[in-house]
Structures are given as structure tokens and as C-alpha cells.
TrEMBL record:
Transmembrane segments: none annotated. Belongs to the SRR1 family. This is SRR1-like domain-containing protein. Residues 19-28 have a biased composition (Basic residues). Residues 1-36 are annotated as: Disordered. It comes from the Eukaryota. It comes from Somion occarium. It holds the Pfam family SRR1. Residues 73-222 form the SRR1-like domain. InterPro entries: SRR1-like, SRR1L.
Amino acid sequence: MSTHDGATFEYTRPFQSARPRKNRKNKKTGSGAQIAPAVALDRTRQELITDVWIQECKHLIRESLHLLSVTSPEVLCLGLGSPAAYRDPRAQLVFLLEVSDDLSLDRSNISVYDPVFTEEDERLLDDIRNAAYALPNPSIAYMPHCDLQLYENILRENWTSNRLPKLLLIANRFSEYVDNVPSQKLSAAFPCVSRIAPHLTSQPLPPCPSHPTAFNNIAIQYIRLSDLPPSEDIFWELPPVPPKSGSEESTNNAER
């Protein structure tokens, strides 16, 4: 669920709003005559669909869903940024729509949220918004370059042996967090990410020639039922969610 206030979105509990990311390497639409968002989106689509890269990505996603025995998944997209204003979020949105069309998914089953959406973004995305955070049905969670806390939140919300094997993540490589965040901090502050990372099958997206910064460090990740620890394992016993502090930190990128 989400609450709408002017031009922003706020994630309701148990999700927390991902703060605007200062180190996003995006370029705004040129400073001359402003291009209509729909026109800019179509131009980006033309750039991507003529590239063999998008076909390779579609194949990897279809293959991963097949291995999970998932058909017709729902789609949740978080942390996209402003596709009306920036090049990278626009490419990420095109990717989402192209993959969804390739899988013949109904766009009414695609949920797209970001706390920095503008009114133009809302109009651009109006036809594909449908709120969902707990994911009881087979789902793709498309979360390019999100805060680590947001990954933790979605995993915690779906931390069951029934839901996790039906979840396909297209997100930052979790192994990067394991490699770059001190293990004690990661296990204490982000136990779900810390625990699931070693069990994930991870397939990095190939480099995108036309939009390299939009998809760097992004991987298709999932866990099969056979790879999950048994129900009595301590893996499933999560610590309580720590209270939020006034100066709450989030580890924002895993070496993007």
C-alpha cells in the first residue's frame, strides 16, 4: 500500500521510504526545449529494443522463471526514480515494460512506486500502478539501485518457505553487500539479506551499451525451494525490527 501526498510517495509499514539517492548518475533531459515525457520514453524504447542486449535479458528472465516453475508473475517495482526527468530511470522503466510485454503480463498487475515521483511521473505511470508489498503470489520484484534497507524490508515481509521460492528479484547483487559491508553490521542490521545471499542463484545482467549506468550491478536473483534451509533452522528466526532512530542510516549502494 502507499499514501499519496502531492508529488511524492511514502511507503507504509513495514516498508520505509527510500531517500533520494545523491550518487545516481543520471542526466536530465536537455536544457533546451523540454521534451514531453511520453516522447522521451518512446525514444528510449527505440534505443533499447534495437539492441541485442534487451533480448539477452529477456531470455535470462524467462529462463529463471522457468527454473522456478513460475508463470504469469505479478510485478512490483520500487526505487525507479523519475523517468520524466532522468535518462537512467527512463531506461529502467522501458526495461520493465519490455520484459512485462515479453512475458505477456497484464499491466494492471504491475505496481510501480518511488518516493521521488513527480506529477508528470504519476501521469506517465498512471495506467500501470497497482499497490502491493506482501507478495503471496509468484512475483518479480524489480528494484534497480535501491537502498539496502528496502531490499531487507521486502525480504522480511515475505520471509516464508512458501513465498521466497516464488520471488524473482531483479536488483543489486546481494553478494556485493556481503563482500563490502562488515559481516557483523550486515547480519545485525540486515539479517534477511545476510542470510539469503549465500543461498541465491544470481545471474548478472550483461552490460548495457546504450545505458551502462542504468543497469550496472543489477542481477536476476532467486532461491529455489530445494535450496532453502529446513523449517526448524535458525535461518527463519528473525530478530525484531529495530526502532527507527532520528539519524537512521541506510547502506545505499553496493559499489554501483
